[in-house]
Write a structure and sequence with these properties.
This protein has 69 residues and is mainly beta. The protein has one domain. Helix content is 6%, strand content 59%. Strands 1, 2, 3, 4 and 5 form a 5-stranded antiparallel beta sheet that branches. Strand 1 and strand 2 form a beta hairpin. The longest helix is centred in the first third of the chain and has 4 residues. The two termini are 15 Å apart.
C-alpha cells in the first residue's frame, strides 16, 4: 500500500505523496425514497469503486449499505 500511495513506511506522507482523486460519480434513483450512488476514485496506480445505497427512514437519509471494491 505504501508504494501505491507514494509514501515511505514510518515516514508518512511527504512532499509528492499521491493523494486520492475523485474521477467520477454516478447516482441512480431506485424509488422515490431511495437511491444508489457509486464513484471512481484514483489512488496512485490503483483505482477504487465505493458504492452506497441511501434510503429515507423517518424523514432522514440513511446509508444502510456501503461497499468498497
Amino acid at each position: 500500500m505504501a508504494k501505491a500511495a507514494g509514501t515511505t513506511p514510518a515516514l508518512g506522507r511527504g512532499r509528492g505523496a499521491i493523494r486520492p482523486v475523485l474521477r467520477s460519480t454516478r447516482t441512480s434513483p431506485v424509488r422515490d425514497d431511495a437511491l444508489e450512488a457509486a464513484a471512481h476514485v484514483r489512488y496512485g496506480a490503483r483505482s477504487r469503486a465505493p458504492a452506497a445505497r441511501f434510503e429515507v427512514v423517518d424523514g432522514r437519509w440513511q446509508c444502510p449499505a456501503l461497499e468498497w471494491a
